[in-house]
Amino acid sequence: MAFRIGIDVGGTFTDFLLVEQGGEARVCKVPSTPVDPSRAVLAGLAEMAAAHDLALDGFLGQVELIVHGTTVTTNAVLTGGTAPTGLLTTRGFRDALQMRRGIREELYDNKFTAPVPIVPRHLRLPVAERLDAGGAVVEAVELADVGAAAEALAEAGVEAVAICFLHAYANPAHEAAAAARLRQLLPAAYVSASTEVLPQVRFYERTSTTVLNAAVGPILKRYLDSLATGLAEAGFAGVLLIMQSNGGVTSPEAATRLAATTLLSGPAAAPAAGRAYALPHGVEDFITVDMGGTSFDAALIKGGQPEVTSQASVNRFALALPSMEINTVGAGGGSIAWIDDGGLLRMGPRSAGADPGPVCYGHGGTLPTCTDANLILGYLSAEYFAGGSLRLDADGARSAIREHIAKPLGMEVVAAAAGMYRIINVNMASAMQEISVKKGWDPRDFLMVCAGGAGPIHAAMIARELAMTRILVPRDSSIFCAAGMLRSDLKHDFVRSLNAPLERAALGSRALADPLDVMAAAGRDRLVGEGLAADRIRFHRALDLRYAGQYHEVTVELPWRVLRDFDEGAIKAAFHAAHDRLYGYHLAEEGTAVEVINLRLAALGLTEKPPLRDEPRRSETVDPAACKGRREVYLPDDGAFAEVDVFDGDRLAHGNRVDGPAIIEQVNTTLLVPPGFVVRCDAYGSFLLTDEAAG
Questions:
Q1: 5 with 16: CB under 8 angstroms?
Q2: Is 201 helix (H, G, I), strand (E, B) or coil?
C-alpha cells in the first residue's frame, strides 16, 4: 500500500495527514518539540506506523511522498537565534541595513525604534565596486577587499555571508565574482548573493531579504540534513518536499539554497486546502482562517487564487520574496489573558504553547488562556478533550481565571471567561479585516473556511463580527495545513527589474516578452529537473506597476497574450482597475504616466492531488447514535447558559441538519453552533454553517 503524508510543525502541535492509496485519510497530532522539531515528526510517524500495526521502517518503506512545512527558520528570526552572519556591500552603503527606509513604522510614536539589525556593523564590510543603474561598470570590483573581508569574517566565526551590491540587479557580474572568491576562501560558509535570491530594485529590501536568507540558511540546512538522515535511517526512500511561503512546494536542495522562502511557510498551505473543500460548493471566493494553539492565520482567496505579496516582513525585517498574503496574529487556544496598565483585559499574543500549555491541561500552566475560558463556558468537554486522551482540569482553569482576571476586574469568573472569549474573537475578526477590508474586499462576499483545533469554537461569532453568513468547517480542520501541503504544486518564482515608463513605442515590442521568456525557460528547466513532465508545467506572469512619482507599486497578473503582444492599453486598464480597488481612485482620465518596475513569473509544476472521498446522501434527520446528550453551554448573544444538544461530529452523515444552539464534537476539534445558525453536512464530511438569523 502506498502512503502520502503532509506534516505541519506548529508552535503547539505537529499535525499529520496520512492519505492511503484510494483516498482513505487518517489524522494524527502530537505535541511539538521546539528544541528539536524533528523529534515530533518522527514521533508522529511512529504513532501512525503503530496504528497500521507496522514497525516504523516497514511503514516508511511504503510512504512514497512526505510534504513538510517547517517553522525552523521563522522561529530562528523571531527568537534571535539566527546564524552568525556577515554582509559584503558596496563601499559607502554598509549602513543601509540599519537605516532601512528611514520611515517610522509607528507614525505617532516618537520612541518607536527600529529593530537591531541581524548583522552588526562590524560585520558589515565594504567592497570597492560600482555599477550605474543600467548595469554599466563605473568601478571594477576589488577582489582584494573580498579577501580582506573573508579573513575578518573567518576570525569573527561567521557561518553565513550575504552579498548585496548597489545596482547588482542590472548586472550580476560583480556579485558573481565576489561570491566565487568568497566560496573559495570560506568553503564552510553559507554564501548568499542578492542576484541569486532577489534580483530586483529597492536596495534596502534586497539587502534585508538576502541577509535573512543567509542568516537562516545554515539553520535550515542542518535541520533538513538531520531530518533527511533520520528518515532514511528509519526506512524512508520516497520523495521529501518542503513547503514554501509562496504556497508551493520544492525539493530540500532548492529550499536550502533559498532558505528565506520557508520563512512564512507554515500557514501557506491553507489556501490549497481551502480550495479543495470550497470548490465542491461552487465557491472560488473565500477566506481561510486557521486558529491553532499559538496563532491565528487568515488568507483571502479570490477567483480560486490566493493573494500574494512581495512586501512581507518577519519580526519587522523586510522580506521581499513572493509570499502568500497571510495575516498572522497571536490568537490561539494557548493565548494568555492579562490586564494592561490601563485596566483593560487583553488576550495574547503571548501563548502558553505546548509546554506547559493551558492551565486545564494540568501540565504546570498557571496563567489563564483561551482554552481555559472555553472550558468554563461549556464549549469543551473535560472528559472528551482530544478524544478522551486528556482529562481537563476545570477547577484549575476556574481558579486561574478568578485569580488573574476576575478578581482584579471585580467580576464573576463566568463573566471574565466570556470577556476573554469575546476579546479574542474581536482580535481575530480584526486580523481578517486586514486582508479583506483594507485590501478593498468586502468580507460579506466571501465564504469563511475555518480550520485549526480551536477555530470552530470561535468561527460563528467571528463571522457575526464581520456580518459573514456562511462558514465551512472541514472535517479534518484540525490538520488543515497538513492537508493543504498534499494539495500544493511545485512552485518557483522569478523576477527581473525594468524600471521604465510603460510605453511600447519607446521600450520596443519585445521588452516584456523577452525577459519573461528567459524566466520561463529557467523555471521549466528547474521543474523538469525535479521530475515534472512538460505538460504539467504552467506559468503565471505579472507586472509591478505604479503611477509616475508614486512610492509603492501594484502587482497585476496579466494573460500571456497581453504581455507577449505588449498590449499597452490592456495593461494600463488592468492597472487602473487594481489601483482603484486598493486605494479607491485611479488616474486613468488624468493621463498620468504609468511605470513598470518589475516583471514577475511563477513557474508551477502540477502535482497529483489526493481525492476527497464523498459519501452517499442520507436523511436530514441525525441518526440517534450521533447524539451524545446535552450539556450547559454559554450562549454569547444571550449572555447566559442554556442546555444544548451535543453531537458526535464523526458520526454525522451527508445531508444531516443540525439547528443551533448545539455543540458538535470531534476528537481534535469542537464546533459551536449558536442560535440562528444551521449546519448541513456535505458529501465530503465538511460542516456548512449558515447564519439564517441574519436573513
A1: yes
A2: coil
Buried b (16+ CB within 10 A) or exposed e, 527-563: beebebeeeebeebbbbbbbbeeeeebbbbebeeebb
With cell 504546570, the residue in question is: 364
Contact 617, 499 (CB under 8 A): no
User: Cis omega before residue 611 (within 30°)?
Assistant: no
Rounded-to-integer distance, Cα 661 and Cα 195, Å: 57
Burial class (CB in 10 A: 0-12, 13-18, 19+), 505: exposed
In the numeric block, the cell 553565513 is attached to: 160
Shortest CA distance to 51 belongs to which of 23, 30, 22?
Answer: 30
Give every CB contact of residue 71 below 8 A, 6+ residues apart in sequence: 9, 10, 11, 37, 265, 266
For residue 314, the surrounding DSSP H or E stretch is: strand 312-314
The Cβ of residue 429 has, within 10 Å, a number of other Cβ atoms equal to 20
How far is it, in rounded angstroms, from Cα 263 to Cα 265?
6
Query: Among candidates 594, 449, 541, 515, which has minimal Cα distance to 169?
Result: 515
Length of the chain (residues): 695
Q: Can you list the alpha helix ranges (DSSP code H) found in 3-90?
A: 37-51, 56-60, 72-79
Q: Amino acid identity of 663?
A: I
Helix axes 413-434, 455-465, angle to 10 degrees: 70
Q: Do 89 and 164 meet the contact criterion of CB atoms below 8 Å apart? A: yes
Per-residue 3-state assignment (H helix, E strand, C coil) for 142-191: CHHHHHHHHHHHHHHCCCEEEEECCCHHHCCHHHHHHHHHHHHHCCCCEE
Q: Which three cell numbers stand for residue 330?
A: 497571536
What is the amino acid identity at position 362? Answer: G
Our separate counts of H helices and E strands in the chain read 20, 35
Of 609, 542, 34, 473, nearest to 246 by C-alpha is 542
What count of other Cβ atoms lies within 10 Å of the Cβ of residue 364? 10
581/575 Cα distance (integer angstroms) = 10
Domain limits of the chain? 3-76+222-262, 77-221, 493-605, 624-694
| Residue 129 CA: distances (Å) to CA of 88, 163, 172, 320, 603 | 11, 12, 12, 24, 33
Cα–Cα distance measured from residue 340 to residue 457, given in angstroms and rounded to the nearest whole number: 26
Model's pTM, two decimal places?
Answer: 0.86
CA separation, residue 446 to residues 11, 288, 299, 460 (Å): 28, 10, 11, 14
CB-CB contact of 273 with 288 (8 Å):
yes
User: What does DSSP assign to residue 621?
Assistant: S
Mean pLDDT by 10 residues, the chain (695 residues): 86 84 80 83 92 92 92 83 96 93 80 89 97 95 97 96 97 97 97 96 95 96 91 92 93 94 86 91 94 87 88 88 88 93 92 85 94 96 83 95 97 97 96 91 96 93 96 89 91 94 94 97 94 94 95 94 96 96 91 95 92 86 94 94 95 95 93 96 94 83
Q: Determine how many CB atoms are found less than 10 A away from the CB of residue 458.
A: 26
Count CB atoms within 10 A of the CB of residue 134.
9
Q: State the distance between the two ends of the chain, measured CA to CA, in whole angstroms.
A: 49
Residue carrying the nine cell digits 505537529: 14
Residue 4, H or E segment: strand 3-9
- The CATH fold of domain 3-76+222-262: Nucleotidyltransferase; domain 5 (3.30.420)
Cα–Cα distance for residue pair 492/249, rounded to 1 Å: 9
Lookup: cell for 401: 481565571
Are 595 and 579 contacting, i.e. CB atoms less than 8 angstroms apart?
no
Q: For the chain, give the percent of residues with pLDDT over 90.
A: 73
Give the three-class secondary structure for 671.
strand
